[in-house]
Amino acid sequence: xxxxxxxxxxxxxxxxxxxxxxxxxxxxxxxxxxxxxxxxxxxxxxxxxxxxxxxxxxxxxxxxxxxxxxxxxxxxxxxxxxxxxxxxxxxxxxxxxxxxxxxxxxxxxxxxxxxxxxxxxxxxxxxxxxxxxxxxxxxxxxxxxxxx
Amino acid sequence: xxxxxxxxxxxxxxxxxxxxxxxxxxxxxxxxxxxxxxxxxxxxxxxxxxxxxxxxxxxxxxxxxxxxxxxxxxxxxxxxxxxxxxxxxxxxxxxxxxxxxxxxxxxxxxxxxxxxxxxxxxxxxxxxxxxxxxxxxxxxxxxxxxxxxxxxxxxxxxxxxxxxxxxxxxxxxxxxxxxxxxxxxxxxxxxxxxxxxxxxxxxxxxxxxxxxxxxxxxxxxxxxxxxxxxxxxxxxxxxxxxxxxxxxxxxxxxxxxxxxxxxxxxxxxxxxxxxxxxxxxxxxxxxxxxxxxxxxxxxxxxxxxxxxxxxxxxxxx
Lengths: 148, 317
Hints:
The structure holds two protein chains of two kinds. Chain A is α+β, with helices and mostly antiparallel strands. Helix content of chain A is 11%, strand content 16%.
């Protein structure tokens, strides 16, 4: 859905789509490895350079939770990173101090990013899930005059 | 300790994320804002324990984990115990020379909700702090047992309507005052105690970095606005946190070595407590005429607490 930087494994599966096991087949304790390979320097790598295993929730998607979605307008954005720091779902993709866009596989559509956006008009706005991003940007509001 | 620069947001945003999306926390939940920020503010290896609560059930839904670091889920009362145990073992193995990578910096962190911190895990947290383990305990304070449907905890403030202290014809909701956990932990011997809120991201990141760099037990109380149980719109999480810190209902301060108290955030315009209460469904009943005295009482207590903090800061005790 979005073309922002990602590992090709991102959002492969709907949560809950995996094979279910019965109550008597569940093990008491389990270790899940987030990565396929050695994870010692993972803090020094970006998501696209990591080798996530199928156990990492990075490979899952919660896109179906959304009824409204945020749309990002590059033309107005000042790269303040407010949306990045407050996004509860790590869904604002930022590289080299620039916002690249929204990770629609992990976004739940809470709207926090729109609330914290300081530009006028806002560079992030909520639209219906069915509307395409191009159509949303075409109907972007113009600058609001300050109320006196 | 390898820290990420938090001088400004642009620099902070170059960090590598270690908390993945597609966890099952509610949209707009402040828990993940706090956890993300903790994991983003350092490059060190983290060993994290989380006890039962919203954070645990939502980030480790089999077969998924949202953590890109060593993480363990443990019983409701034992986040502090698990972190303390891991830290003790790390020290012992380091001394014996049996660690694979002895020079890699490691930090031990425990996350608990307010139910497991203020009530259920209190004795275990107190014990771990008393033993002086080098770890940081972070309480995600959403002022109720949100995971099980919003029961009261001893962090629930007076007047809030919860499922086990509902407001109605005969009651105005929770009748007891919020426990002052920071004073308790400072008196317990914690090296660094701080109260933070996600809307003041820099203040919060600095407190996290200080705690991680401190050699000794640290306790951080983080305000985590709960959209489900506080009854506000998910998009308003940061606005509600702003109201909480600016009305001084949730003052931001730190206590170093139990004595040195510093106020870390002073709002330019102090808002009335009424504004904070009015924004949340759980305090709706306080605006009935027969409950008006409660709001006045709230304001008085908040003012008195702020006065007390300022006097303590000035007196350096």
